[in-house]
Amino acid sequence: AQKITQTQPGMFVQEKEAVTLDCTYDTSDQSYGLFWYKQPSSGEMIFLIYQGSYDEQNATEGRYSLNFQKARKSANLVISASQLGDSAMYFCAMSAGGTSYGKLTFGQGTILTVHP
Amino acid sequence: EAQVTQNPRYLITVTGKKLTVTCSQNMNHEYMSWYRQDPGLGLRQIYYSMNVEVTDKGDVPEGYKVSRKEKRNFPLILESPSPNQTSLYFCASREFAGVTSPLHFGNGTRLTVT
């Protein structure tokens, strides 16, 4: 079974600064994918970034980057140059094989608040 | 525009009155799924479908039904809703069920059962 752990219930950051949201995962599968989603107060779920278990480079998408440390089983999201619009709930998720094939397992989420 | 469309956005109903939440995707995705989101419990998968006529239970299937007669549609049916099914529901689709394919979510349906 897969498990995602996000240990930071809430994080605060000053506008224009960088922030790291933590995510650790657990799986016995060798092939898996890691995803980050953003959920603003309006409720929709927005896909941000993906990292594959065999990818040697850390994924980047604009101001988002994923700090993937396979040995530590961590997949932290880094948001550079924070903006007020980044205030939202952020979820880390994983897709793997085995009996959970096809399913995305989500962490509990981290609420990010960006201060002006 | 590529999207997952679910309706309605908000629904208030009474215990026992059957309801259906519709979900449609225009991306020709094989995999579709329903999740519910509750405070403190996160997102939990209700049902999923690998392809047309192929559906299976997720983590919390009790009290729900689904069908996948067409590739684009995946409705969620509550035959006899109860207050513990009050939740935020998301329909989502993926191009395929593999580990590299992200889930694309609909905008959510906020259901209240009184």
Shape of chain A: globular
Number of strands of chain B: 11
**Uncertain runs of chain B:** none
* Main sheet characteristics of chain B: 7 strands, mixed
How many beta-strand runs of chain A?
12
Tell me the number of helical segments of chain B per DSSP (H or I, 4 or more residues long). Answer: 0
Span of the ends, CA to CA of chain A: 41 Å
The whole-angstrom Rg of chain B is 13 Å
Alpha-beta classification of chain A: mainly beta
Question: From the helix content, strand content and strand pairing of chain B, which structural class follows?
Answer: mainly beta
Strand content of chain A: over 45%
In round numbers, the mean pLDDT of chain A is 93
- Give the averaged pLDDT of chain B, no decimals: 94
Principal-axis shape of chain B equals globular
What is the share of helical residues of chain B? under 10%
Rg over CA atoms of chain A = 14 Å
User: Helix fraction of chain A?
Assistant: under 10%
The largest sheet of chain A is: 6 strands, mixed
Low-confidence stretches of chain A: none
